[in-house]
């Protein structure tokens, strides 16, 4: 019937022009909807003879099936096209590319820091994190360095406009950690420190330290020596000896500089230890009663030790870096150096 042929032609052109789902929905409504072409053309049936009605009905049905199947396959075609476009816009990874053998590596400071964390975790120490921007109180006053104390001159400091400071040493976190845990307490807290330094091969303005404190009843210098010796023997993977020399830090009394027997020559003397057999490694001491008190811990009841390991310097020694500035240099050779080990 002419009417149906016209509808089919109209539909074929309309579906061929469809580019989006919205356009497809419009075509569906135009042909299959309540007032669509196929529904309205059924109204013609009432003027037909009984025989024509049957044939017409069949033709309309056939056209309806054709229209809905065409709409369904157009829908699938649009979906596939959308997936293809999304895939084409994604970065391509060729999983069959042969591996170059190159692999990434952690930064040497991270490697040694992780090793230290594992050692201390094994000895029951909590691992804490400190702020990089600190209050002047935490960085100085809380560790017994009041305003105008000459010891402030030992650490040339970056002050911020709001009066806070870039942490000059990890000791700045002692007060917060003592207040957080109270006594007894065993914690280490590695962190980045900043000082306005005259730069050279062993001085950076940004470097890492790792602080440790242990506070309990009857803690003595023997405990300090034991933990330092155990830590350093594990770090260097061989038995080392330690010795203490007097050192001054306002937050410990007595204070020490701890030397470690050279792990490279076993104490005989070599280039690394400048032929002395000893390496200066870690200032430490018994926590000053004022510092315990400011941390909310009764110094009559508790004693403790603290140490401040120069982590960046330890990394230099472990991997044989001659200049500390390499560690912050972004030079990939730094990472390659640790990959060999
Ligand atoms: C301190 O910072 C004390 N807070 C350490 C301490 C903690 C003592 C607890 C007693 C008890 P000192 O300024 O010496 O101390 O620094 C400690 C270590 O950090 C040094 O031995 C050194 O290894 C490292 N260090 C200091 N300044 C720099 C720098 N500019 N660049 C690289 N490493 C540095």
Question: Can you describe what's shown?
Answer:
This protein has about 350 residues and is of the alpha+beta class. It has 11 helices and 9 strands. Helix 1 packs parallel to helix 4 (about 50-90) and helix 5 (about 110-120) packs across helix 10 (about 310-320). The N and C termini lie far apart (about 85 Å). The mean pLDDT is about 90.
General shape: elongated
Major beta sheet, strand line-up: 1-4-5-9-8-7-6
Compute the gyration radius: what is it? 39 Å
Low-confidence stretches: none
Structural class, please?
Answer: alpha+beta
| Elements, N to C (H/E) | HHHHHEEHEHEEHEEEHEHH
Proportion of beta-strand residues: 15-25%
- The tally of beta strands, per DSSP, is 9
Helix content: 40-55%
Tally of DSSP helical segments: 11
Distance between the termini: 87 Å
Bound molecules: adenosine-5'-[phenylalaninyl-phosphate]
Mean pLDDT: 91
Strand count, sense and barrel status of the largest sheet are: 7 strands, mixed
Short description:
The protein is α+β, with helices and mostly antiparallel strands and about 350 residues long.
Name its key features.
single chain; 341 residues; seven-stranded mixed sheet; two-stranded antiparallel ribbon; 11 helices; elongated; binds adenosine-5'-[phenylalaninyl-phosphate]
